Amino acid sequence: MYDEDQLDSNEYLGGVFSKELPNGRAGAIIALEVGGIRARTRDGKQFFLKYPDCRLEMGGASGRMVFCRDEARTVTIFCEHKLFPEGLRQESSGELHGQLDAIAGARSRERWSGRFWFLTLTGLSVVLLIGLYFGIMIAARAAVHALPYSVDETIGEEASKQLDQGFVEVQDEQVVAAIETIVRRIEKQSRLPAAKFSVRVVDSPVMNAYALPGGYIVVYTGLIRESETPEEVAGVLGHEMAHVTLRHGLERIAGQAGLVIGIQMLFGDASGIVALGVELGQHAAANSYSRDQELEADLEGARMLHESGLDPLSVVPLFEDLKKHDLPDQLSWLSTHPQIGNRIAALKAYAATLPPKQYETFDEIDWAEVKRRVERK
Question: Is the entire prediction scored with pTM above 0.85?
Answer without folding.
Answer: no
